[in-house]
């Protein structure tokens, strides 16, 4: 018992082979008044154990007829030797105790039952707050890249060469990126494959939820059957939606968009299998990974200088 953390709920039910007796004078903290007959040495050991472990003798807290307190019966011998003990802090969870007459758990021992009401708290999923990111990947689109280049040039006052003050320049680049490209929500996406989701599935799930609420309020067989039928329908709708989405994906595999979808799903599954939230590294021109803050900043500066001078280089070639 001493090895069990105090915060854990403990219930002991056993044949202690002792009589705690009627009355509780001097022992009110661990037992009630409703025992059987007089206390003996073994019963005193049970009470001492309860005190030492801060437990209560559940049998003695509920006023019952003596017939429903007797746990052992053999011929003319009728006594109470089987007890249920729990931590005193959990006594409030015990709503009833009784001995089931006519049911024998073991020879000459009657079945001892207590009713506990346990509060189950629903665990809330902790939300993982992530840093909002600028959608730099939009620079792959020519129109976004062109707009970003123009807005950044305006922010720099029409200069082509970036200022020497990197901190100022970096902040101007970030601010322009946020305005032109936008930022992510900062919320982590759920690890659910719902790319196949459609309106039919959504409607079916909504109807199922309403049916569940209806059944919870009125537990009739009709409401139960309605809820079960909608459960089966949702499963069918989900299965059909997934199959349809996969069929469309297979049909598009020969196209560029289909390849992108496939790679996107593969990357998502790869990320789901890793405990990595964010990556703060970048590669240089030769593909080597840069990890230090200074080298990363230097590479970003080189990148944006190349981006800003791209138009001028094209003009010189012409």
Give a quick rundown of the structure:
This protein has a three-stranded antiparallel beta sheet with strand order 1-5-2, with helices on one face. A two-stranded antiparallel sheet has the order 3-4. A two-stranded antiparallel sheet has the order 6-7. The chain is an alpha+beta fold. It has seven helices and nine strands, in the order βαββββββαααααββα.
Distance between the termini: 87 Å
Give the strand order of the largest sheet, numbering strands 1, 2, ... along the chain: 1-5-2
Task: Provide the succession of SSEs.
Answer: EHEEEEEEHHHHHEEH
Q: DSSP strand (E) fraction? A: 5-15%
Low-confidence runs (pLDDT<50, min 5 residues)? 274-279
Number of strands: 9
CATH-derived topology of the largest domain? Deoxyribonuclease I, Chain A
Rg on CA atoms, Å: 36 Å
Structural class by helix and strand composition: alpha+beta
**Silhouette:** elongated
Mean pLDDT metric:
80
Determine the CATH superfamily of the largest domain.
Endonuclease/exonuclease/phosphatase
Total number of helical segments?
A: 7
Give helix % range. 40-55%
For the record, the CATH architecture of the largest domain stands as: 4-Layer Sandwich
Q: What profile does the largest beta sheet have?
A: 3 strands, antiparallel
